């Protein structure tokens, strides 16, 4: 059965008549619905509007809203090109969540966390305050964005740690830095901070914020390497997974070792590949006997092995680094000793 749409003249209809029509149509539709009849509208397709005739304007007169008072020569292709350039200037990266991989827009330098964003306490000397502010404003320092100074000294980093996406975006920036050149930069600042034109008096008085700054500068390379490790099972940053793991907060404690913070006795880190690889990074860095890892790695590794198995990680320090200068000095001393023995044998 086909029900053709009824045509109405443009005239007023008495309320009672209109109600009767609505009731008759409603009852007819109800009967058809119960019988399973399909209604087909056989009305002709509506005629497309002709912009030139119906609106009294031509296609050449059409322009974007923003350009109503601008240059008539502005074309839509320029708009598309501008949009494409804008899109290409904001690259996207893949940030993986614990259960999979989520795509997230990379954070710009203006939106990522920064170290010492809460300022400095009043007990810092004027000289040290000037040094620290100059360091934080240094373009090279800012491009490195040291993870080692963010972990303990950044309120914005603490806020980012509440989201695996935001933390992954932050690590995208810190891990994009050139670790070789940035290590040299941080080593230079670590040396200058001890000078009289830096923070020597503040370090002597054990100002905790400045001591933490010096430690973080020296720990840049091992903490860069550890924080940029990825979980091979999820492709997510190991640190991002650890810091956002609310079911086991101790997973992130291990990352504080290079900052001279020992692993708490009750810690029960998850025994996974991330923990194993992170400890391997710290073991290798313990070859620098002047670093914090030389004093707290073995204890932490022993504790990890007690939880994960006796051979889960290497519980000894790496072989110490011997500088070329020390090797040369040792060789010259050996040569001198041989010469003395030869002369003594002649005299005898």
From TrEMBL:
<feature type="compositionally biased region" description="Low complexity">
    <location>
        <begin position="73"/>
        <end position="93"/>
    </location>
</feature>
<dbReference type="Pfam" id="PF24855">
    <property type="entry name" value="DUF7729"/>
</dbReference>
<feature type="region of interest" description="Disordered">
    <location>
        <begin position="1"/>
        <end position="20"/>
    </location>
</feature>
<protein>
    <recommendedName>
        <fullName>DUF7729 domain-containing protein</fullName>
    </recommendedName>
</protein>
<feature type="domain" description="DUF7729">
    <location>
        <begin position="112"/>
        <end position="316"/>
    </location>
</feature>
<feature type="region of interest" description="Disordered">
    <location>
        <begin position="66"/>
        <end position="93"/>
    </location>
</feature>
<dbReference type="InterPro" id="IPR056146">
    <property type="entry name" value="DUF7729"/>
</dbReference>
């Amino acid at each position: 059965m086909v029900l053709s749409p009824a045509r109405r003249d443009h005239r007023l209809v008495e309320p009672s008549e209109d109600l009767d029509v609505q009731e008759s149509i409603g009852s007819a539709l109800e009967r058809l619905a119960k019988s399973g009849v399909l209604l087909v509208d056989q009305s002709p397709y509506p005629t497309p509007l002709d912009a030139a005739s119906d609106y009294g304007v031509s296609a050449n007169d059409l322009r974007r809203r923003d350009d109503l008072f601008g240059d008539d020569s502005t074309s839509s292709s320029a708009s598309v090109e501008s949009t494409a350039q804008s899109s290409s200037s904001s690259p996207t990266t893949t940030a993986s969540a614990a259960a999979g991989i989520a795509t997230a827009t990379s954070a710009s330098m203006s939106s990522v966390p920064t170290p010492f964003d809460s300022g400095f306490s009043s007990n810092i000397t004027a000289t040290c305050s000037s040094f620290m502010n100059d360091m934080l404003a240094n373009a090279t320092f800012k491009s490195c964005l040291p993870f080692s100074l963010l972990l303990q000294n950044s309120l914005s980093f603490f806020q980012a740690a509440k989201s695996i996406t935001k933390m992954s975006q932050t690590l995208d920036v810190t891990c994009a830095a050139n670790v070789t050149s940035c290590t040299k930069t941080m080593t230079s600042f670590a040396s200058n901070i001890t000078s009289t034109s830096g923070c020597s008096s503040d370090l002597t008085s054990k100002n905790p914020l400045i001591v933490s700054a010096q430690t973080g500068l020296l720990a840049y390379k091992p903490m860069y390497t550890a924080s940029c490790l990825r979980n091979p099972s999820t492709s997510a940053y190991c640190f991002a997974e650890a810091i956002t793991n609310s079911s086991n907060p101790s997973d992130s404690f291990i990352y504080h070792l290079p900052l001279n913070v020992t692993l708490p006795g009750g810690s029960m880190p998850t025994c996974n590949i991330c923990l194993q690889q992170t400890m391997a990074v710290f073991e290798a860095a313990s070859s620098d006997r002047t670093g914090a890892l030389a004093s707290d790695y073995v204890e932490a590794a022993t504790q990890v092995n007690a939880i994960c198995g006796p051979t889960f990680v290497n519980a000894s320090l790496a072989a110490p680094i011997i500088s070329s200068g020390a090797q040369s000095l040792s060789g010259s001393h050996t040569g001198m000793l041989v010469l003395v023995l030869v002369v003594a044998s002649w005299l005898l």
